[in-house]
Amino acid sequence: MRWQRPIGAIAFLLLAWAGWAAWQHHEYGHQRDLARQTLAREAESVMKTLVGGLRSHRRLGFFQCDRLEESLHELADSQDILAAAIVAENGRVVMTAGRADLLDLSPPVETGEFWDDAGFRCAVDFRVEQPSDGPSPGPGRGRGGGRGWGRGAKLAAEAGDFGPWESGGRFIAVLLLDRTQADEAIRRAVGVRTALVLAGGVVLACVAVAWWTTVRLAGARGRARVLEAEARHLRDLGQAAAGLAHETRNPLGLIRGWTQRLATGELPSAEQRRQARAVVEECDRLTARINQFLAFARPCEPKPSRVDLALLIGELGVLLAPDLAAKELRLEAAGGLPGWQVWADRELLRQALFNLISNAVHFAPPRGSVEIVGAPGENGTCRIEVADRGPGVPPEKVALLFTPYFTTRSDGTGLGLAIVRRIAAGHDWQAGYHPRPGGGSVFWLDGIHGG
């Protein structure tokens, strides 16, 4: 169906956007892991340096223990390390540096890598061998050049104090690294990927709008071509019908002429002459309908000029005087009509008003009046109303007014109001109807430009 195509396209675009969002989420996860791995590798490098330094200071003897603590403080003073600590196997805290309050050193201290609110925590255990009293095969560090422990080692051995490392054993080195930069990188990744997802949605929305516009435009062009073909066909059909009506009117006039001659005395009996007069009347009625059809089919190409509306209505009053006198009606002009100048094709406006006034005269009750009211409109335009006190138009038939071949008159052709609407459309006016308060009808022309 026609509605299935756009729904399928929308589903495809939503699926494409979901795939794009999933890919961006995957890339965000990769960047997040990369930021964390970078900090973990930094922690691993620092930890190797720290443990190696501890073991090196342990071999140098007791008088280097204070240097060890000083080195630990220098390490904690670096930009990315918040705190450092050495914890013995029994849970005793050997050394701390930096913001030790951020470290949870309550036993048992777990080893491994942890992400918490304080930062990235790395804990590694290492062993320190118990010192021996025998000479070391390594190079001496005393004042002589021989081999042995050297002066520092001898002093340590004599004092029997190697500080916290005297008994050796298992220790845990704990580092707390600042995770601010890693978190900032992750936040940037979130912002970038979110922006890319939104941008992808906007792009797909633009594609959807462009596609929808293209489809609508193609459909409109197709409908325009169909309507153009139909209009061309109707125009050709109208021209053919007008030609047929024109060709019919000529022999019809000839038939009327000969029949009228017969009706005036050439027929032998009165009955035959009466029938001949009936033929003449039908010829006249058919000719009138053909003339109205030709007026309706003729292209409406207004040639506007300044028209004195009051003078035009006076002419129509003279033309319709026999019909008005037959029902003892008055044609009254009201409102701002005297002296009004309007911009219109005089003959077309005359024909439109003639049709409206003729209808009003037909439906108005005897010894009444037909009123023509003029009133100013918007933007310098005016409105002309033709009102009567007839029966009005039934509500269910109002929608059919101004359509060809619809009439409520027994002798009507159904083209009078259709011609009025065509003339109004040719001038960019509006033609319409509304019931008259108190009974009757009001037909109007609106949007007429003043002259």
N- and C-termini, Cα separation: 54 Å
Strand order of the largest sheet: 2-1-5-4-3
Helix content, binned percent: 40-55%
Arithmetic mean pLDDT? 79
How much of the polypeptide forms β-strand, as a percent range? 15-25%
Q: Could you spell the SSE succession in H and E letters?
A: HHEEEEHEHHEHHEEHEEHEE
- Category by helix and strand content: alpha+beta
How many strands, which pairing sense, and closed or not: the largest β-sheet?
Answer: 5 strands, antiparallel
Number of helices: 9
Count of β-strands? 12
Overall geometry comes to: rod-shaped
Number of domains: 3
| Regions with little confidence, pLDDT below 50 for 5+ residues | 133-161
Radius of gyration: 54 Å
Could you explain the architecture of this structure?
- The strands form three sheets. Strands 2-1-5-4-3 form a five-stranded antiparallel β-sheet, covered by helices on one side. Strands 7-9-10-12-11 form a five-stranded mixed β-sheet.
- Residues 133-161 have low confidence and may be disordered.
- The protein is rod-shaped, with a radius of gyration of 54 Å.
- It is α+β, with helices and mostly antiparallel strands and 451 residues long.
- Strand 9 (369-376) and strand 10 (381-388) form a beta hairpin.
- The protein contains nine helices and twelve strands.
- It has three domains: 4-178, no CATH class; 220-296; 303-449, Histidine kinase-like ATPase, C-terminal domain (Heat Shock Protein 90), CATH 3.30.565.
- It has helices at residues 4-60, 65-76, 150-159, 180-266, 270-297, 309-319, 321-326, 346-363, 416-426; strands at 81-88, 93-98, 112-115, 120-128, 169-177, 305-308, 330-335, 341-344, 369-376, 381-388, 430-435, 441-449.
